[in-house]
Structure formats: C-alpha cells, structure tokens
C-alpha cells in the first residue's frame, strides 16, 4: 500500500511538473522541438524539428534557430515521433485511436482567457505574481521567435492552464466526444440507433481509450 502511494505521488508530481512547463514564454505541447514530418495537400513533405503551439493548435518548425509557422490550411498530416496529427477545423488534433477514415481526436489549447481573467495559481508569473492582459504579453513563438532565447526563458513567463477536449472525427463531420454533443449533431433519423448502440456498448466518456468504440457506430 505504501509503495502504491509513493508511485501515485510520483505520477502526480510528474503531471504537475509538465503543467508548469506550459507558460506564455513556452506555450508548446512538447518540452522542446522534436523531429517530425509534415504532409501537405500538394503532396510535398517537410522534415524538420517541429512543435505544436497551443494558442491555436498550430504547427511551428525550426529553420536553423528561427521559429516559423506552417500555413494551417495546407497541412494534411503531421507525424511527431509516435504521435500523429490531422488537421481538422483549422486545428491540429492528435489521433488517440483510429485512422484517417475515422478517429478519436485530442485537442490541446492553452487557456489564455483564464490568464487574463484571474491572478490565481494560473495567471501568475513563474517568478513574480502578476496579471496582465494578453495584448501586453510576450508570447513565445509569436512575439519572440528565436528558439534559444525561448528555451533560456521558459520559466520566465506566466503559467498557462491547458484545456483538453476530445472529438470523434469522421471524413465529413466533427463530433464533440460527449453523449449530448453527438446527439446534437446527429440527424433525427439516427438518434434512436445511437441510443440503442449505447445500450449495447459500454462507453466511459471520461476515458479517451474507451471512446474508440463509438467509431463502430459511425462506420456502420
């Protein structure tokens, strides 16, 4: 029991440290730029160190030590190590399970609104408490685009909370991964089938891995 408690504490600390790394000076998914490949609509590819900028879930890459942004509308797929991202609704969404024909997607966005509204645990400087309007903030990858400068000032920005959302993505639709969200977008003639499907298939709505069973319904 004591060993389990220690393991749980270690896991919680790991998540806390990861959350603290997301700041206005480093509003990125990954702790540094990682080798990735970008696939474009025109069949071109780009291999470069890349990262997901959490202001709009857009793609940044390194050209030498300068940070540049890839035009969102031209992206089809991004692979970053073991992670795959498809562009949907002008945002990069990570594939939790499935493939291009239908998948469970995770969307991460930094909550800049919370930063400007509150001066609590989030909205505080990593070093000195302060609340500032977004327009006056220096945002890494936006106002400051030198990679080494950002890395050396990671902890100098304001801490950012991160919003995590899940979706069911099909070739022609994007559904919030909640019972209410899906039902609100289904045509009336499919509602009864969906409710029957849920009776026959257990879905744990708070478990992203469990959401994959919903893909069966949309593939029928």
UniProtKB/TrEMBL annotation:
Signal peptide start-end: 1-19
Highest rank taxon of the organism: Bacteria
Annotated keywords: Signal
Annotated organism of origin: Petrimonas mucosa
Signal as UniProt keyword: yes
Protein name: Secreted protein
């Amino acid at each position: 029991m004591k060993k389990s408690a220690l393991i749980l504490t270690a896991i919680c600390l790991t998540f806390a440290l990861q959350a603290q790394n997301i700041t206005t000076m480093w509003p990125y998914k990954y702790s540094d730029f990682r080798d990735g490949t970008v696939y474009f609509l025109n069949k071109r590819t780009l291999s470069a160190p890349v990262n997901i900028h959490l202001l709009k879930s857009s793609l940044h890459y390194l050209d030498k030590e300068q940070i540049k942004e890839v035009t969102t509308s031209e992206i089809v797929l991004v692979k970053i190590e073991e992670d795959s991202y498809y562009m949907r609704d002008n945002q990069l969404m990570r594939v939790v399970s499935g493939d291009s024909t239908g998948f469970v997607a995770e969307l991460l966005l930094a909550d800049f609104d919370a930063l400007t509204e509150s001066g609590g645990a989030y909205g505080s400087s990593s070093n000195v408490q302060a609340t500032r309007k977004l327009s006056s903030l220096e945002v890494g990858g936006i106002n400051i685009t030198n990679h080494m400068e950002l890395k050396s000032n990671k902890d100098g920005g304001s801490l950012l909370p991160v919003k995590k959302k899940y979706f069911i993505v099909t070739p022609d639709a994007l559904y919030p991964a909640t019972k209410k969200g899906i039902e609100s977008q289904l045509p009336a003639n499919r509602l009864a089938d969906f409710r029957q499907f849920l009776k026959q298939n257990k879905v744990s709505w708070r478990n992203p891995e469990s959401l994959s069973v919903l893909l069966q319904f949309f593939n029928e």
